[in-house]
Amino acid sequence: MADEPKETKPGFQNPVAGFGVTFKAMFKKRLTEQYPEQQKTTAPRFHGRHQLNRHPDGLEKCIGCELCAWACPADAIYVEGADNTDEERYSPGERYGRVYQINYARCILCGLCIEACPTRALTMTNEFELADSSRANLIYTKEQLLAGLEEGMVDTPHAIYPGMDEQDYYRGLVTEAAPGTEPQVAVSKGEKPQEEGADA
Ligand code: SF4
Ligand code: SF4
């Protein structure tokens, strides 16, 4: 047996019925988050923007091994390692990350890269405001990802702590830069040292 057709309201009542839904919603608890004026606190282990960490004297923990890049399922990381020298040292051991980039147009913030990192050089912060309308701006460089300087740190490149070796850094024996530590003159980043008297 066919269903009886439902009784419909007279045509002039339809707009009023629609407003009824609106009025009911006006008195319900609002679920809208007032972002960005009011930001929600993230969970402590939230996966946000990455950070390249430093040792307590300012030397970099990254050794340019590329394990993070190999672990990344989205092919979002690009690393080029290079050799440290006594004249220009960025990390305590033999190698450092000369070029380091993360493409946030690709990254899915899964955290596999930080699990793969053997030196805990790479970790993730709670920062989540990574949107941009430019693809180029979404490629973060080493300069953007490198952690800032805390008390007792000197910016790289600079010499290893006197009397210490790479293992001592990982044993936690270096707690700050040695007295008198000075940044070295960087020559391997593509910029040539300025000759005295040369035009800027
Ligand atoms: S969080 Fe995941 S997707 Fe993003 S760079 Fe690391 S491994 Fe790749
Ligand atoms: S961040 Fe870690 S895994 Fe990636 S290149 Fe540096 S040391 Fe290797």
From TrEMBL:
Cofactor: [4Fe-4S] cluster
GO CC terms of this entry: plasma membrane
Annotated keywords: 4Fe-4S, Cell membrane, Iron, Iron-sulfur, Membrane, Metal-binding, NAD, Oxidoreductase, Quinone, Repeat, Translocase, Ubiquinone
GO BP annotation list: aerobic respiration
Segments for region (Disordered): 180-200
NCBIfam families associated with the record: NuoI, PRK05888.1-3
HAMAP family according to UniProt: NDH1_NuoI (MF_01351)
Protein's recorded name: NADH-quinone oxidoreductase subunit I
Species of origin: Streptomyces acidicola
Gene: nuoI
